[in-house]
């Protein structure tokens, strides 16, 4: 009987290949999770994968995707933005206010009711300004992103309450006589039988992915997250990049606010509460490291799909809202643990590669 022994070199190669396989599986975890969830709910819920059902789910997913796509750059720079949910709610209230009450000019005793083509850009600018303020506070006054955005979250949420005294602006279809109709079409309209919200989601994802991969700004974002001091010494204008990163986050939150308000045809100051948690979960689940320097836009988009399909699937199964919260929390914890495992495995792989070269 013959026995075969492995040389040290062969044993090393075997371990290295096993480590590479494990690392590959960790990198593909979001895709694997998505397929598992789709398979599970398609088995448990009748008609889960029917086209009409999928379109409704993706339409729901688009809201979280807007927030997650915007916050991805923030997390890649090792920052965080807890104010996106409040920004969503406030921007929705601003849109509702302009449709319901118009822009009041007390000195002339009149109110101007702008068209949708004016309302949407104004709301986007407001969202971008909120993000820019976050970036300025963080960079100029060296305030920790968590503390800064936590504070602005409360300020913005309070401002949304003050705008309507805590009341809802209902019936935002507009008035044909005032020329401000059409806002509801953003949330209810479609092109080629696909809702505008879904088209917008993929357009925004494509734009941000292009920025991340093709433009110097994207490379600077990754450089800051990887090593901020080294990026600064290499000529990257760190503070300017960070301000733009938070501005993009605010813009995406404003877009989400417009879409949500349009879908509901009403705006309420509490809209978007805790939405930032789902967005952060989608980003982390998609492979973006909370330590910064690593992440992809495609991963974030898949992460948003995982969170959204999980939420809708649990609702279709009749799972209690309380259990839904427990499951979402567990998903976030598991995602962070896996992210830490991936970081350690990448570090070990890099060390092993350096030793083999030397």
Automatic annotation (TrEMBL):
<feature type="transmembrane region" description="Helical">
    <location>
        <begin position="86"/>
        <end position="104"/>
    </location>
</feature>
<feature type="transmembrane region" description="Helical">
    <location>
        <begin position="116"/>
        <end position="137"/>
    </location>
</feature>
<dbReference type="InterPro" id="IPR001851">
    <property type="entry name" value="ABC_transp_permease"/>
</dbReference>
<comment type="similarity">
    <text>Belongs to the binding-protein-dependent transport system permease family. AraH/RbsC subfamily.</text>
</comment>
<keyword id="KW-0812">Transmembrane</keyword>
<dbReference type="Pfam" id="PF02653">
    <property type="entry name" value="BPD_transp_2"/>
</dbReference>
<keyword id="KW-0997">Cell inner membrane</keyword>
<keyword id="KW-1003">Cell membrane</keyword>
<feature type="transmembrane region" description="Helical">
    <location>
        <begin position="193"/>
        <end position="212"/>
    </location>
</feature>
<feature type="transmembrane region" description="Helical">
    <location>
        <begin position="243"/>
        <end position="266"/>
    </location>
</feature>
<feature type="transmembrane region" description="Helical">
    <location>
        <begin position="322"/>
        <end position="338"/>
    </location>
</feature>
<keyword id="KW-0472">Membrane</keyword>
<feature type="transmembrane region" description="Helical">
    <location>
        <begin position="61"/>
        <end position="80"/>
    </location>
</feature>
<feature type="transmembrane region" description="Helical">
    <location>
        <begin position="272"/>
        <end position="290"/>
    </location>
</feature>
<protein>
    <submittedName>
        <fullName>ABC transporter permease</fullName>
    </submittedName>
</protein>
<keyword id="KW-1133">Transmembrane helix</keyword>
<keyword id="KW-0813">Transport</keyword>
<feature type="transmembrane region" description="Helical">
    <location>
        <begin position="31"/>
        <end position="49"/>
    </location>
</feature>
<feature type="transmembrane region" description="Helical">
    <location>
        <begin position="297"/>
        <end position="316"/>
    </location>
</feature>
């Amino acid at each position: 009987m013959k026995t075969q022994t492995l040389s040290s070199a062969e044993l090393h190669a075997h371990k290295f290949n096993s480590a590479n396989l494990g690392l590959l599986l960790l990198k593909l975890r979001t895709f694997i999770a998505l397929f598992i969830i789709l398979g599970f709910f398609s088995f448990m819920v009748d008609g889960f994968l029917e086209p009409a059902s999928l379109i409704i789910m993706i339409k729901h997913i688009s809201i979280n995707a807007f927030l997650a796509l915007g916050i991805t750059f923030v997390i890649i720079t090792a920052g965080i933005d807890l104010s996106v949910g409040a920004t969503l709610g406030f921007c929705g209230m601003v849109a509702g206010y302009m449709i319901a009450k118009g822009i009041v000019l007390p000195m002339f005793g009149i109110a101007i009711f702008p068209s949708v083509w004016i309302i949407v850009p104004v709301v986007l600018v407001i969202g971008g300004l909120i993000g820019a303020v976050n970036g300025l506070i963080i960079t100029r006054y060296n305030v920790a992103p968590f503390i800064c955005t936590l504070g602005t979250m409360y300020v913005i949420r309070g401002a949304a309450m003050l705008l309507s005294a805590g009341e809802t602006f209902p019936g935002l279809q507009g008035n044909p006589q005032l020329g401000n109709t059409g806002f509801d079409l953003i949330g209810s309209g479609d092109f080629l039988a696909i809702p505008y919200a879904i088209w917008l989601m993929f357009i925004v994802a494509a734009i941000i992915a292009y920025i991340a991969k093709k433009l110097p700004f994207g490379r600077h974002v990754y450089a800051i997250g990887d090593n901020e001091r080294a990026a600064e010494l290499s000529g990257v204008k760190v503070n300017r990049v960070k301000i733009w990163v938070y501005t993009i986050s605010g813009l995406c939150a404003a877009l989400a606010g417009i879409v949500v308000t349009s879908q509901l045809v009403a705006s309420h100051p509490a809209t978007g509460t805790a939405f930032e948690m789902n967005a952060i979960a989608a980003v982390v689940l998609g492979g973006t490291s909370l330590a910064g320097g690593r992440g992809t836009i495609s991963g974030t988009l898949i992460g948003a799909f995982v969170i959204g399909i999980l939420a809708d699937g649990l609702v279709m199964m009749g799972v209690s809202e309380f259990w839904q919260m427990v499951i979402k929390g567990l998903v976030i914890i598991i995602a962070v643990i896996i992210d830490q495992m991936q970081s350690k495995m990448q570090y070990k792989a890099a060390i092993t590669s350096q030793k083999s070269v030397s």
